[in-house]
Amino acid sequence: MSVEKVIDISISSNFHEFIPSAILRLQYIFPNIKIEVTAEGLTAFGTLEADVPKFEREVIYQIYREKIFHETLPLRQSLYQMLAL
User: Fold this and answer.
1) Is the pTM of this model over 0.85?
2) Parallel, antiparallel, or unpaired: how do β-strands 33-37 and 5-10 relate?
3) Helix (H, G, I), strand (E, B), or coil: what is residue 4?
């Protein structure tokens, strides 16, 4: 069984630091897809049972979700600290 390239997805450099964490989530959602980080974003290999546009939307959503998680982490930690007092 050969592995075929499914799609290249360009991601703004502002989001590159969040790609590795998002890939962990994506591997759970798309276990048959291998995702590699590239200089421009990422490349997916494998066979998609779902359509490619849906996969691309999910990738972008997971990266954005990871960005929001990191940005709000200090706020959540402060709230938890206040509640623990």
Assistant:
1) no
2) unpaired
3) coil
Which residues constitute the domain of residue 28? Answer: 5-84
Q: How confident is the model at residue 66, as a pLDDT? A: 96
Contact 34, 43 (CB under 8 A): no
* Structural domain total, the chain: 1
Residues of the chain short of pLDDT 70, as ranges, are: 1-3, 49-50
Query: In this structure, are residues 7 and 52 in contact, taking their beta carbons and an 8 Å threshold?
Result: yes
**CATH number of the domain to which 45 belongs:** 3.30.70
pLDDT for the residue 8: 94
CA distances from 15 to 42, 58, 68 (A): 11, 15, 11
Continuous H helices in the chain: 19-29, 52-84
